[in-house]
From TrEMBL:
Signal peptide: none annotated. This is SDR family NAD(P)-dependent oxidoreductase. Belongs to the short-chain dehydrogenases/reductases (SDR) family. Pfam families: adh_short. The lineage of its organism: Bacteria, Pseudomonadati, Pseudomonadota, Alphaproteobacteria, Geminicoccales. PANTHER family: SHORT-CHAIN DEHYDROGENASES/REDUCTASES FAMILY MEMBER.
Length: 155
């Protein structure tokens, strides 16, 4: 399952996984995923589109249900989605701030929960793997959030 595959890096990741023989659930919050899945299929790969807002817990959970229905299981979950607002901190609205955090942090959190519903994040195999530690991720997020605020100074 590759999240945020409607364009750019996410679409490229999905195409590459498909070229390497993976069946890919092409997921994003817009119908353009149908085009990307169609391109993968036309090139001989296996893909299914899925439109979801991963900041919504129910939709994030359905994402993994869909992957399992289409392909039997989820072996890899790529969290590629991100939102950025280019603005000076004093010009950024609270709604813009909330959207950035919802997509780039809450969306990852909810998708990790969905991927781990059967304990999948902890049953990794192979020479290279990692286990997602949500507690460490939260500490790093809180620390990272402070750096822009530390650098901000009024005129």
């Amino acid at each position: 399952m590759v999240r945020s595959t409607a364009r750019g890096i996410g679409a490229a990741i999905a195409r590459r996984f498909a070229r390497e023989g993976a069946a890919v659930l092409v997921a994003a919050n817009e119908p353009l995923v149908e085009q990307v899945a169609g391109e993968i299929t036309a090139a001989g790969g296996t893909a299914a589109p899925f439109v979801a807002d991963v900041t919504d817990p129910a939709q994030a959970a359905r994402l993994y249900d869909a992957a399992e229905q289409h392909f039997g299981r989820v072996d890899v979950s790529v969290q590629n989605a991100g939102v950025i607002t280019i603005a000076r901190i004093e010009d950024m609205t609270e709604a813009e701030w909330d959207k950035v955090l919802a997509v780039t942090t809450k969306g990852v959190f909810l998708c990790c929960q969905g991927a781990d519903a059967g304990g999948g994040l902890h049953q990794v195999k192979g020479e290279r793997s990692f286990i997602v530690d949500p507690h460490a991720a939260l500490l790093r997020l809180a620390d990272a959030a402070l750096h822009p605020a530390d650098a901000f100074r009024r005129g």
